[in-house]
Amino acid sequence: MTNLSSMTSLSNITRSKGDPKVIHSGPRSRGIPESLARGLGWFSLGLGLTELLAPRRITRALGMEGKEALVRVYGAREIGSGILSLSVDKNLGLWSRVAGDGLDIATVMTALRPDNPKRDNVVVALALLLGITAVDLIDAQATAVRHSRGAGRKRSYRDRSGFPRGVQASRGAARDFKTPSDLRHAPPLAAVSKRIPAT
Amino acid sequence: MRALVWHGKEDIRCDTVTDPEIEDGRDVIVKVTSCAICGSDLHLFHNFIPAMLPGDVLGHETMGEVVETGHGLNGKLKKGDRVVVPFTIVCGECDQCKRGYFSVCQKSNRKKYLADKVFGHTTAGLFGYSHLTGGYPGGQAEYLRVPFADSTVQKVPDGIPDEKLLFLSDIFPTGWQAAVQADIQPTDTVAIWGCGPVGQMTIRSAILLGAEQVVAIDHLPERLEMAEAGGAITINFDEENVVERLNELTGGEGPEKCIDCIGMESHVTPSMPDTVYDRAKQILLAESDRPHVLREMIYVCRPGGLISIPGVYGGLADKIPMGAAMNKGLTFRMGQTHVQRWTADLLRRIEEEQIDPSFVITHEVPLDKGPEMYRMFRDKQDSCIKVVLKP
Ligand SMILES: [Zn+2]
Ligand SMILES: [Zn+2]
Description:
Shape of chain A: elongated
Distance between the termini of chain B: 10 Å
Oligomer: heterodimer
Distance between the termini of chain A: 65 Å
CATH class of the largest domain in chain B: Alpha Beta
Order of helices and strands of chain A: HEHHHHHHH
Radius of gyration of chain A: 30 Å
Largest sheet of chain A: none
Number of strands of chain A: 1
Largest sheet of chain B: 7 strands, mixed
Domain Alcohol dehydrogenase-like C-terminal (chain B): 197-268
Cofactor (chain B): Zn(2+)
Protein name (chain B): Glutathione-dependent formaldehyde dehydrogenase
Bound molecules: zinc ion
Largest interface: A-B, 70 and 90 residues
Domain Alcohol dehydrogenase-like N-terminal (chain B): 26-157
Keywords (chain B): Metal-binding, Zinc
């Protein structure tokens, strides 16, 4: 029972005695690209919250004092990317992260000036940013491929009428069915204009 | 046994779980021979239906053989019976059941208190469809316990393959009820949004019931092709304006009957800006359902016409044009399917070869491929329309 997530064990409380309960997990729908997207989504949320709530920590570490407002805006953007990456539209979230990485890199580059006493920190930050950009790019591409609509065979369903006697012979074949009184609707307009006799 | 188990958003696993056990005299255990993934299971896959818990067994389209029986079945079922298990669990005794409104059975939801809170009043218990509808383990599994089995299941004869009978559990009666409650007349144009499995069954039902024109709306070529094969005129909304084309086909009057086989997860595309607006609100938890189809139906439907909604909605939808709906005097009919009201009649129509519902199956795979198939069905890959699983 060690490989059971605690949530699953906890939610077993809501089950009755004869209901099936998980013993161990097997093949799953979530692949590596999806799991990575979730990780990156949570990372975005964490970073975004830090940028939003404690921007001075970041500007001070990078010698970018005075840019707190900008960092807050970036924090809001990061939270948006995080929510998207955690949603069903994770691919959009990952591409928004890639775009955000570009903005981050461009902004941190401005702190690379020789007179910045925190220049070493800036170099480390840039290296981290480049690394995470690569991960974002790879995962954005991987999820795009994995979820691409229309992948696999293109099959033709032209012969699948579902009517053993063919479509023409099946039109109205169930007219023996009597609509129950609770499901009747207004008489057809055509009956009023005498296109057909009223039924 | 093995079963498909929900663990969270987009996280479904083929787990080993304990076998279900008889709890009540009216229970039976069914050894599952075939089960299917339903379009409405994708709302669970996306975690858009509230009150799912990790560890819930999925699946509500199931058939198989009775292998164990409770002691209170009054001889109505015995070991060895071949049965289709409708997704609605029904007591057969309450006033709603007695008038044929099975999907709002007053007794079968064992978590009535939850539904009373969320919906105002309880509805029927459903297999594998969240704790709002009873938290009953579903049938994408090797074995299924069926509560109130004597009134819930449909016995079926030997000699007809599973593939022709399985969809009596949901999509065939669902498409049928969608068409029947539209009270189709020989002069009617019936417009059907969505050519997924329920849409396909609705098209066939509307043809059998004798509509003058059946028009089907989607954008996936393989689904439109299947719709056309079933006798529908098709509209690809990526290429044509749906409202213009429907008016064109009806001499500018609009279709008399409009049927929504999409429900809460309308396709999102920038060419229909309201869908993008809905998706954004949904992500921000400001709206749960995306009602693009409802808006379009209300706008295009003929005054005095009827709107039938078999597609599943889960919570709150925004910007429904009630002004147009009210002033045009439209009739709305909706609900989970009263499956047991239709199964016996539809079984006869299958036996008489009026219809063979197996046409919709595009994939048949072992149960342990289920998690992967959820993803593939959702992503519409490999021309996937309907998946049948073999435990
Ligand atoms: Zn279903
Ligand atoms: Zn009942």
